[in-house]
Amino acid sequence: MKLWFWLLVVLLVVPFSIYAQDETPSWCVSVWYPSSDVTGGLESIAANGDILGVIHPFWYSQRPDGTLQVAEGAEDPVLLEAWGAAGLKIIPSIAGSVWEMIAEPQIRAYHIDQIMQLVERMDYDGIDIDYESFPLFTRDDFSTFIEELSSRLHENGKLLTIAVHAKTSDAGEWESAEAQDWTRVTPAVDVLTIMTYDYTNRNEPPGPISPTSWVRDVLMYAESITDLSKVRMGLAVYGYSWLRERPPATTVSWSAAQRLIETYDLEVERDPANMEAFIDFKVRGLPHQTIYFADSAGIAYKLNAILSEFPTLGGAAIWGVGGEDPAIWDVIREANAVSC
After folding, report:
1. Burial status of residue 44 (CB atoms within 10 A of its CB: 0-12, 13-18, 19 or more)
2. Could you tell me the sign of the dihedral formed by the alpha carbons of 213, 219, 220, 222, in that order?
3. Dihedral, 34, 36, 39, 40 alpha carbons, nearest 10
4. Which of 120, 141, 145, 317 has the fewest CB atoms within 10 Å, counting from its CB?
5. Do the beta carbons of residue 108 and residue 129 sit within 8 Å?
6. Other C-beta atoms within 10 Å of 136: how many?
């Protein structure tokens, strides 16, 4: 069916919950930047500061010796001043998959010292830990690291947010998800951001990136661990394209998918259970592509379903900003997002 039909469906379904702002609790939206190779992310953030509460500049990574690697262009004073003037909390991300610096107590303590010096030097509001793909044997060490870092940050009036792998049980679907013990880390942090995307990752055959039914199951597990008011749901605004239905996929933006749709008059398809958009690109003389991507209709459906079932959810964290469907921001705005 054509895109206009599904847009009509969403417009008919959404108003009774998302647009009923008097009945929907306010919630916080954060955004990682940069979280896409596509230009335009800064402009999107600047234009929609009224519904953003936190920005996570992706500026730092870890080293095995406990020191921090600073990205090129990080700590830009112009950006920091603009974000501060817009009222955004600035909580930069430290990212990576280096586990060695938390496994040894002395290096772990030194790593925490390095983080504290960074936060104090730059007068950040806190720090965001995005340590991914750790082996299972680091489970206790990771929890201890988060607890110790939390204590130091809170002593200094700073915030700790962490990004964790999505899962529907403690064990999850792979060892790195199990390596993050939500029962220990959640009480220590101010915000638990669950990366509810890449349900189908780039190394798998084509499929939805963030199906609503799966997000629901992840949040049900989170609700069994903690009050959802401290949880943010990862909100993907990007897409994946599979060439000839074979992995690995490449990341694509909504704007790139839209150009194909308009140029070749393609039909946008959706699984009615999840409403995530996809196109099956088959044009004579060009390679076959299958593209799943986020758009405003799919995001509206997801927010309506999730906020209806989990009204105390603390917010959403956007990944993939840059080239996203501009109408997504109005959908989030209608969902009653506020500064936090």
Report:
1. buried
2. positive
3. -70
4. 120
5. no
6. 12
Residue of 170, 92, 73 whose CA lies nearest to 130: 92
Q: What is the per-residue burial (b if ≥16 Cβ within 10 Å, else e) of 246-285?
A: eeebebbbbbbbbebbeeeebebebeeebbbbbbebeeee
Asked whether the beta carbons of 219 and 211 are under 8 A apart, the reply is no
Name the H helices within 104-205: 105-122, 139-155, 175-178, 182-188
Alpha helices in 269-311 (DSSP H): 296-309
Cα–Cα distances in Å, from 19 out to 28, 71, 216, 246, 334?
17, 40, 20, 40, 6
3 state SS of 153 = helix
Burial class (CB in 10 A: 0-12, 13-18, 19+), 299: buried
* 248 preceded by a cis bond (ω within 30 of 0): yes
Q: What is the pLDDT of residues 131-182, one digit of tens each?
A: 999 999 999 999 999 999 999 999 999 999 999 999 999 999 999 999 999 9
Quick one: average pLDDT of 32-61?
94
Residue 133 Cα to chain centre, angstroms:
16
- Residue 240 tokens, joined: 């994946």
Instruction: Provide the pLDDT for residue 284.
Output: 87
Asked if residues 194 and 166 have their Cβ atoms less than 8 Å apart, the reply is yes
Does 24 have pLDDT greater than 60?
A: no
> Over the stretch 214-239, which tens digit does the pLDDT of each residue have?
999 999 999 999 999 999 999 999 99
Fold of 27-237+299-338: TIM Barrel (3.20.20)
Residue 274 neighbours by CB under 8 Å, 6+ apart: 208, 211, 212, 213, 298, 301, 302
Q: Which residues contact 156 (CB under 8 A, 6 or more apart)?
A: 116, 119, 120
Burial class (CB in 10 A: 0-12, 13-18, 19+), 64: middle
Taking each continuous run of H as one helix and of E as one strand, the counts in the chain are 12, 16
